[in-house]
Design goal:
Protein name: Alkyl hydroperoxide reductase AhpD
Oligomer: single chain
Radius of gyration: 15 Å
GO molecular function, one term: peroxiredoxin activity
Organism: Dactylosporangium matsuzakiense
Mean pLDDT: 90
Strand content: under 5%
InterPro entries: AhpD-like, AhpD_core, CMD-like
Low-confidence stretches: none
Number of strands: 0
CATH superfamily: AhpD-like
Number of helices: 7
CATH topology: AhpD-like
Shape: globular
């Protein structure tokens, strides 16, 4: 795949500052970093964002995530590797990423399940991180940004 821009930094010079603020807001909320990593990876898988899937998986591995959990994120419903809180965050991620798949984009049952495990502030941070991830996914998809070719 050939990237459409050789320098994605031309999008806007203030974008890194804004992204850093979003990152700090989401990661400073008290949500476990592993939950936010799972949210990022799952949304990126759904959207087919190769650089975000790559960076998300690498970040999870760097932070000590097990191969079982890392390799089974796309099949989280069928595996025993995730807590109930993580499952609720993953369900919320899928619903909020696939907005057009149903009339009620995020059904009350999904929201209520997440609310059993996270405070209102944490829920806000998870939704913010889902939206931020989708933001990156859409930029990378539009620009055909490839995953890095370094191993």
């Amino acid at each position: 795949m050939q990237a459409r821009l050789t320098n994605p930094g031309v999008l806007a010079t203030d974008v890194p500052k804004a992204v850093n603020l979003l990152y700090k807001a989401a990661h400073g909320s008290g949500v476990a970093p592993a939950v936010l990593e799972l949210v990022h990876l799952r949304a990126s898988q759904i959207n087919g964002c190769s650089p975000c899937v790559d960076s998300g998986a690498r970040s999870m591995r760097k932070n000590g995530e097990s191969d079982e959990r890392l390799f089974s994120v796309a099949a989280w419903r069928e595996t025993p590797y995730y807590t109930d809180a993580e499952r609720a965050a993953l369900a919320l991620t899928e619903a909020a990423t696939r907005l057009a798949d149903r009339g009620d984009a995020v059904p009350d049952a999904i929201w209520d399940a997440a609310a059993q495990h996270f405070t209102e502030e944490e829920l806000g941070a998870i939704v913010l991180w889902i939206a931020t991830t989708n933001f990156f996914n859409r930029i990378n998809a539009a620009l055909k940004t490839p995953a890095p070719q370094q191993w």
